Amino acid sequence: MCNTMQVHEDEHMPVRIDRSLAVILLLCVAWISVAPADNIDHFERANELLEAGNYPAAITTYETFIKENPDSDLVPAAKWAIANIHFVVEKDYRKAALLYQNIIGKHTDTGWEILSYERLGACYEQEQRWIDAARLYESAIERLAAPSHAEAAADWYDGFKERLLSCYRMLNDLPGMVRVYDESLEKSPLVSSAPGDLFGLAEVFLEMNDPATAASHFAAVVDRYPFSAHARRVRDEHGKLLAAQVSYDWVPFATFQTCLTLSESGRYEEASVGFDTVIARKEGTGMEHAARFQKELIRFRQTGDAASFRDRLMKSREEHPYGFGGVSEDELYDILETVIKAQETAASNPGEFTPYARMAYAYYQIRAYSPAIENYERAIEFAPNNSDLYVMLGYCYMGVGAYDDAIRVFGKSIETAPWDPNSYDSMAEAYYTRGDTAMAVEFYEKSLSVDPTFVNPYYVLGEINMHAGHKDKAVHYLSRYLELAPEGSRAGEARALLDGLTDEY
Fold it and tell me: Is 499 helix (H, G, I), strand (E, B) or coil?
């Protein structure tokens, strides 16, 4: 089994207490420069009491510190700690809210101000004060525009935006939701949240019984961000609406999706020709620019030249008004930087396997399988007993449909680490993907014989037995998966399959 980040596309804090609260506080204190004259004995003692769970004593000691050191940079941290005890432990939201308000009013332009906006909003939401919470989140978003919060803005904006939308949803204030989405899209149509914002805006117009405006926004999702999951959702969930309202032509989008698959599987020439068709059909739209970006990506997948690819993208930014069609720019640039740094390290340490492995994994993340294979093979030259390298090389071969090569390499992984259940699981996946279910079952079962707590085979064996009509076995495997991984990556799918199976009994 291989889990990777792919280049493509705030939840309320739980009201419970554990030792992590103190850890968070102590980490936050590291932000602050403590003046030598500060008497921080009481502050440190309060942190110890907090970590030990002695909350009343911690509050008293924090209050003593604040009284004795009113000008200390640690005062907002002490107030925040007391407020958190009221909020999380005592669930006294009114008392907590007063302290968070105090921090916002008296300690502006600090990280504690933004933290307190978040927690004060949570207090209001706990009391279902949706109007107060909405106004607060609007103020928080305005404060993020201050120069002192420039570094924090990117991390906090989406969270406050989602909380604000949630408040308007609770108030059934659809015009308010439209305004939030519009402001977010006006702020930047390039950010990774833009496809979701545009999709959400379209759905709000549907709720407002304005199908024409909704359709035009749904069409914009597809035209601007054809790589995004939201574009595919438009096709799957609202395709008929677009056909009826704007007579949308789905052929270019279908071609774009086909070309994505061709490019990712190494069929670069066919993909490039298809993207040229999209460029001609969608001239002047975001989809044209997305197709041009995909052609650049094909070139990179063929050459592996990360520096040139990065430089071309940076120079052509103005040519992509909606980014790269739904591809996360931050993730993309991070991957390219990883490749570039690994290349530099490999040049200065040519006998080390690590830079080649890092480079290969970065290539794998972006589905540049040819350079990934080349670099994994180079890494194996220096670390022939590293089973993980064989596993990743095998997945690269699977990426280009070379299943015989993948099976051969997974066999080397098993030879190198016969005690590792993942080696057998990977071999099973290769057989299963190739269509040889019998061999897949054999290796999935072998994986479990090596480690009965290794979870992935249980899910796949449950799926295989379900399709084969062996309901009892399917229920057994899926139930075991959920016993071992109730919050696992496939837990939701496993529960859905189990529900379907049990309904049939």
Answer: helix
Q: Can you give the three-state secondary structure of 427-487, one letter per residue?
A: HHHHHHHHCCHHHHHHHHHHHHHHCCCCCHHHHHHHHHHHHCCCHHHHHHHHHHHHHHCCC
Tell me the angle at which helices 20-29 and 111-126 cross, rounded to the nearest 10 degrees: 150
Distance CA 263, CA 301 (A): 9
Which of 214, 211, 210 lies closest to 198, judged by CA? 214
Distance CA 446, CA 418 (A): 10
- Identify which of 94, 100, 26 has the alpha carbon closest to the alpha carbon of residue 58: 26
CA distance 119 to 28: 15
The pTM (predicted TM-score) of the whole model is: 0.78
3 state SS of 314: helix
Instruction: Spell out the residues 6+ positions from residue 34 whose beta carbon is closer than 8 angstroms to its own.
Output: 40, 72, 73, 74
Answer whether 356's CB lies under 8 Å from 375's CB: yes
Residue-range domain boundaries for the chain: 1-172, 455-505
Whether the Cβ atoms of residue 262 and residue 270 lie closer than 8 Å to each other: yes
Structure-block tokens of residue 7: 């280049």
Q: Which tens digits make up the pLDDT trace of 325-338?
A: 888 888 899 999 99
The percentage of the chain sitting over the pLDDT mark of 90, rounded to a whole number, equals 76
Q: How many CB atoms lie within 10 A of CB 296?
A: 15
Give the tens place of pLDDT for each residue, 8-37: 333 333 222 333 444 444 434 433 434 444
CA 417 remoteness from chain centre = 31
91 by Cβ neighbours in 10 Å (0-12 / 13-18 / 19+) ranks as: middle
**CB within 8 A of 308, min separation 6: which ones?**
none
What pLDDT, on a 0 to 100 scale, did the predictor assign at position 2? Answer: 60
Q: How far apart are CA 308 and CA 255, in angstroms?
A: 27
Task: Give me the amino acid identity at 361.
Answer: Y
Q: What is the CATH number of domain 1-172?
A: 1.25.40.10
- Segment 305-310 shows an average pLDDT of 92
Ramachandran angles phi, psi of 324, nearest 5°: -105, 35
Backbone dihedral angles phi then psi of residue 323, each to the nearest 5 degrees: 75, -145
Q: Which of 87, 27, 15 is nearest to 51 (CA)?
A: 27
Q: How far apart are CA 213 and CA 204, in angstroms?
A: 10
Are 237 and 268 in contact by the 8 Å Cβ rule? The answer is: no
